[in-house]
Each structure stands twice: as structure tokens, then as C-alpha cells.
User: What shape does this take?
Amino acid sequence: MTFELLLVLAAGLFCIGLFGALSQQSIVMIMMGIELMIGGIIVAAADFWHFLAPNAPSGQVIVVAAVVAMAVEMAMGFAVTTAIYRARQVDMTDMAKELKG
Assistant: This one.
């Protein structure tokens, strides 16, 4: 794939994720949109790394670290969402903002 095509793919992933995160009220759907946005950023970063320094292993390490951080962040988010749902039967953002007391 060419550099420009991968950047279009990254921009498409980011835009779809942004639309998903802003248009949904379900906590899980918002997290899926954020996941797509981070995936687009990782694709763009990997593409820039391959274009600028294809033989440098440091770019690969950064991309792998970003993927691991994304996986950990999503696991923690789903754990918190599951805990909130089990405690209060709340799965929408409108209801979750009223959990103060």
C-alpha cells in the first residue's frame, strides 16, 4: 500500500470513530468509537514511521507499545463499565452522570 492510501485509511478510521463516540449514548459504543480513533492514530503513526525510517526498530517498538496501552485502557474501561452496570444497572451516559450519591 502507498503512503497516501494508508493515511486515508487512518483518517477514515479516526472519522468513523469520532462520529461513533459523539453520536452514541451507550458507554460501550462510546468506548468502541474511541477504540477506532486510537486505531486510526496507530495506523497513521506506523505509516509515518515506515515512510521516514523503514529500517529503524524504534518505530515498531512505539507502535507495539501504543497497541498494548490501547488494549489495557479498553480492558480497564470495560471493567469499570461492568462494575457500574452490576452495581446500579446503568449503561447510558445520561444515567451514569447521576451516580454521585
Observations:
- Residues 13 and 28 are 18 Å apart (CA to CA).
- The two ends are 53 Å apart (CA to CA).
- The chain has a mean pLDDT of 88.
